[in-house]
Amino acid sequence: MYKKRLFLFSAVFSVCSFGWSPAAAQTNPLAIPPTLEGPTYDLVMRDTSHVFFDGIQTATAGFNGSFLGPTLIWNKGDDIQINVTNNLGEPTTVHWHGAHVSAENDGGPHSVIPDGTTWSPAFEVMNRASTIWYHPHLHMFTNMHVYQGLAGMIIVRDDEEAALDLPREYGVDDFPIVLQDRKFDVDGQLVFQPMGKGLVGDTYVINGTIDPILDAPGQVVRLRIVNGSSGRVYNVGMGDNRAMQQIASDGGLLEAPVALTRIRLSPGERAEVLLDLASDIGDTLRVVNYASELTNGERGGTFAASTPLDGVDSTLFFVGVSDALPGAVTSIPSNLTTITPLLEADAVKTRPMIFNNNELGQPFGINGIGLDLEVVNEVVNLNDTEIWEVGNETGDPHPFHIHMVTFQILDRDGVAPPENERGWKDVVFVYPSEVVRLITKFETFADPTGEFMYHCHILDHEDRGMMGQFVVVDNSTDATEDTRPRTGELLVRNYPNPFTDRTTIAYSMPSRSELKIEVFDVLGQRVKMVFDGVREQGDYETIWKTGDAAAGVYFVRLTTPSQVVSHRVVLAGGE
Ligand code: C2O
Ligand code: CU
Ligand code: CU
């Protein structure tokens, strides 16, 4: 039974590109996750099983249900509380990806929810109307937990979006579409291969459904597409190559719809699109992953093809079009919102963020090191506008994601981004040797102990440490800023000194150059690799959380191509 289905799938993928009638297909209705409305939301994570194939129970994990979780409806301005209970038998965390929340509510790797406990973040919804999502974020286990089925969509609503004549009736003319791929063994069980080629599955799973068909009315409909896969890039288009109208990116509405025949989504990215189905009543359309057009090492393209889906154009789901509904949206608005550009002239700092090798020589670093939860790599001043210059010295493209803020893309290799990347984003795909400059303003959640993450959103890469941490600090209340005049010298100091649990290493760069920051003990052994990248001229801080390092004297050494400075610091004994 199962083998026969597999055969049918490959027939669907290889033979039916054109003119093939889906009426003969063994399709399944596309699952539409239920919604949860606030102000209180209850999510329970548990091991369970899900029916991907008729008659087969596949072991999975889910939020409330058997694969993925309910779609949470958030309203901007509401005070909400989410009770997240972990019954998985192991620890995890749950992160609100794209949410503008404090570090304590963000659900990053620090907010571990032990098995059998409930975590209850509570906050005001500050986001614009947008499609965001949630997923576990435990360091080294994110990929596995998401793979088993732990992820869900969040729809944020606000008054501005509500005033537009857009489809927004969930499951009626406004549809969640979570794109994932999985690998199954001959018994229909999920195969998880954390390392190497297992990054891409051999079967598309859309909202937890294999070979799905979406029943949609013959009118303007909205698809909220999330790339929720571990590593696969999706190049979404319609089977008949008609244009889709993209109306929103990660962080909300674009200024105006952008007509596109292809929308490329790297892991973590979202797009909302409108399709006008008024003249398709009675027809069945296809939504296709045009994987043959993927280039530049994009996973799921021909590069290192490892599954039958790679590099091949194949159907993600069918759309069966029925009659229009009363009150249907019949036209596509020409203006959506106003996006006020953040100005490069307002940026007080440029931070190069380079995907490259970590301190072990593996290609899973950012600025020369992998994630170290005892290092807060970047300290940002409250209300500063900054440019982050994301580079890529590896051979693979990586999606760069920042927690808490949304950003605007200034340019890709000096060229303005395509129109559908001119709105608010929280993930940007960065190709090998490309430099993407993004700009954002850090206006909230100043807290020197509130760590936020930035990372590659290929889940296997983030698990291997392609991630760093930043905090926002309010220097208007903290008179520690270095006011010494610039001398052309590399300067370093730390505060407090002596210290017990953490110290801030403050330094001034006389000019843009390479820089290495290391901590050594009195025997000359390196105990911490803090930074190995590029800095602009200016003042910077990084925080060393001493963990279980022994009390004593240490030396912070800064090395540039022209100078080496070493600074003595004292880790005091226990309390
Ligand atoms: Cu969707 Cu830090 O992640
Ligand atoms: Cu996130
Ligand atoms: Cu990566």
List its salient traits.
43% strand, six-stranded mixed β-sheet, binds copper (II) ion, mainly beta, binds CU-O-CU linkage, Immunoglobulin-like
CATH architectural category of the largest domain: Sandwich
- Helix and strand content put the structural class at mainly beta
User: Helical residue percent?
Assistant: under 10%
Approximately what portion of the residues adopt beta-strand conformation? 35-45%
Query: Would you report the number of β strands?
Result: 40
C-alpha-based Rg, rounded: 24 Å
Mean pLDDT figure: 92
CATH class of the largest domain: Mainly Beta
Specify the number of helices. 5
Q: In order across it, which strands form the biggest sheet?
A: 1-14-22-21-16-19
Give the biggest beta sheet: 6 strands, mixed
Distance between the termini: 66 Å
Low-pLDDT ranges: 1-24
User: CATH topology of the largest domain, which one?
Assistant: Immunoglobulin-like
Q: What ligand species are in this complex?
A: CU-O-CU linkage, copper (II) ion
Apparent shape: globular
What would you give as the CATH superfamily of the largest domain?
Answer: Cupredoxins -  blue copper proteins
The tally of structural domains comes to: 3
